[in-house]
């Protein structure tokens, strides 16, 4: 199976609007795993994706979870808006993120250590990872501002 890094299709010189969902299970967070070949580093990001013209960020969040991992959402709570300026694969990126906290409707997702997702025909891995591994900076959560919303 070919896995592509998340954020692999960032157009140059364009601000993207994303809706991302923090999904917790006890002390763990569900995150997609990405890899930057230029920096040679692994990073993790909450699931979700781009808001399409004419849809709300909440609608985009629900659509993206369904498209990527076939998961319905429950208990959706808006947390706030983040701005993310970053470099990925040697190129500058700029995102405005509408951040939500949510639960997965299907409880079987909480028993899976790894969930294989699909982003437009390209597969990626989502994992349940202990939140303290991000707080201690052992693992890199992007954008870093999401750390504010993680349970201590």
Protein model, in words:
The protein is built from two helices and seven strands; from the N terminus they run E-E-E-H-E-E-E-E-H. The model has no long low-confidence stretch (mean pLDDT 92). Strands 1, 2, 3, 4, 5, 6 and 7 form a seven-stranded mixed β-sheet that branches. It has helices at residues 57-69, 132-135, and strands at 15-25, 28-36, 41-50, 73-88, 91-104, 114-119, 122-130. A hairpin with a 2-residue loop joins strand 4 (73-88) and strand 5. By secondary structure, the protein is mostly beta strands. The protein has one domain (15-149): Nucleoside Triphosphate Pyrophosphohydrolase, CATH 3.90.79. Helix content is 11%, strand content 49%.
In short:
The chain has 152 residues and is mainly beta. 11% of the residues lie in helices and 49% in strands. The chain has a single domain (15-149), classed as Alpha-Beta Complex (Nucleoside Triphosphate Pyrophosphohydrolase).
Itemize the secondary structure elements and their pairings.
Blueprint: E1 15-25, E2 28-36, E3 41-50, H1 57-69, E4 73-88, E5 91-104, E6 114-119, E7 122-130, H2 132-135
Parallel strand pairs: 1-5
Antiparallel strand pairs: 1-2, 1-3, 2-3, 2-7, 4-5, 6-7
Rounded to the nearest angstrom, the distance between the terminal CA atoms is 35 Å
Q: Please give the count of helices.
A: 2
Biggest sheet overview: 7 strands, mixed
**Low-confidence stretches at least 5 residues in length (pLDDT < 50)?**
none
For the record, the CATH architecture stands as Alpha-Beta Complex
**Strand residue content:** over 45%
SSE run: EEEHEEEEH
Any idea of the CATH topology?
Nucleoside Triphosphate Pyrophosphohydrolase
CATH class: Alpha Beta
What Rg is obtained from the alpha carbons, in whole angstroms?
A: 14 Å
Mean pLDDT across all amino acids: 92
How many independent structural domains? 1
How many runs of DSSP E, i.e. beta strands?
7
Helix content: 10-25%
* Content-based structural category: mainly beta
Q: CATH superfamily name?
A: Nucleoside Triphosphate Pyrophosphohydrolase
| General shape | globular
